[in-house]
Amino acid sequence: MEKFFSVGDVDNLSQIVKEALSEKASPNANEALGKHKMMGLVFLNPSLRTRLSTQKAAMNLGMNVMVMNMDKDGWALETRDGVVMNGTTVEHIREAAAVMGEYCDILGLRCFPGLKDAEEDYSEDLFNKFLKFCNTPVVSLESATRHPLQSLTDLITVIENSDYTFDEAKQQYIPNGKKPKVVLTWAPHVKALPQAVPNSFSEWMCEAQKQGLVDFVIAQPEGYELNEDFTSGATLVYNQEDAFKDADFIYVKNWSSYKDYGKILPVEGEWMPTLESLKITNDAKVMHCLPVRRDLELGSDILDSEKSLVVKEAGNRVWAAQVVIKRILENK
Ligand code: CP
């Protein structure tokens, strides 16, 4: 593995989940792999889970870790070519990425979208330039359109909390009985948030559905449909109650509109899940990538109940990061 940017960087989802759960069972079994190697984590935006879990994962593999808060501590970056840098930007990404590549064996990068221009954000210009100029493997710590470490975590969490057998001959998880029904639901928020987490969750769950692991449904209000490149194969519904019927996992997340790019649109009805709205599910477990706004996005009655997987899910961020870093160190 040379980069970890999307579900396209993994061929067999079952195998990577199994490998991640093996890291979870023996966190320090591969600590010799990263000895004398350096992981650099570069943040252009805030983070709690991604920063700490990736740092812990790299350290479990014996790596040293450097963290750079580029937004606060770095020089203002220029990403455009062919401009005279006589404005506010101080350092070009060509030099900045290349220099960080000199210091590190693997780099992680977090770079959120601007949410002003869909074409610009969906081109993933900043991530791609960083990848091109740093000359070392790069792990996405959330880019403009995707959050693959979160999505791998979410798949691990679904499989870990369901009933599957791993078929060694097929190298695949096989559901014992009915495939889990996984529902991604839009939920309210006061800020315009990126589509990266739901895009990525959808992309991974659509692939998991193709590989026979889950049935996948997305519930969203009119106007909040995600970019179709990420939802191929998903069942799309506009009524949360319909989606929740017999669901085994409810994945709650807000996102801003893709069609009316980056906007918060008026929405009819109640979209914040509560214990009451879960009654029609198949005793569903509830997931969220965190941070979550209590009683705006998700009811605290759920978050404080046995139904919530959010803390276990955040715990699994370590094993998702660890399996990805391990594969890069093994160069496979
Ligand atoms: N879920 C997630 O990526 O959390 P942070 O933004 O705190 O890293």
Automatic annotation (TrEMBL):
Residues 214-325 form the Aspartate/ornithine carbamoyltransferase Asp/Orn-binding domain. N(2)-succinyl-L-ornithine binds at E142, H189, K253, R293. Residues 11-160 form the Aspartate/ornithine carbamoyltransferase carbamoyl-P binding domain. GO terms for biological process: citrulline biosynthetic process; L-arginine biosynthetic process via ornithine. It is an enzyme of class 2 (transferase). Pathway: Amino-acid biosynthesis; L-arginine biosynthesis. It holds the Pfam family OTCace_N. It catalyses: N(2)-succinyl-L-ornithine + carbamoyl phosphate = N(2)-succinyl-L-citrulline + phosphate + H(+). InterPro entries: ArgF'-like, Asp/Orn_carbamoyltranf_P-bd, Asp/Orn_carbamoylTrfase, Asp/Orn_carbamoylTrfase_sf, Asp_carbamoyltransf_Asp/Orn-bd. Carbamoyl phosphate binds at S47, L48, R49, T50, W75, R110, H147, P148, L149, Q150, C289, L290, R317. Its EC number is 2.1.3.11. PANTHER family: ORNITHINE CARBAMOYLTRANSFERASE, MITOCHONDRIAL, ORNITHINE TRANSCARBAMYLASE, MITOCHONDRIAL. Homotrimer. Catalyzes the transfer of the carbamoyl group from carbamoyl phosphate to the delta-amino group of N(2)-succinyl-L-ornithine to produce N(2)-succinyl-L-citrulline. Is essential for arginine biosynthesis. This is N-succinylornithine carbamoyltransferase.
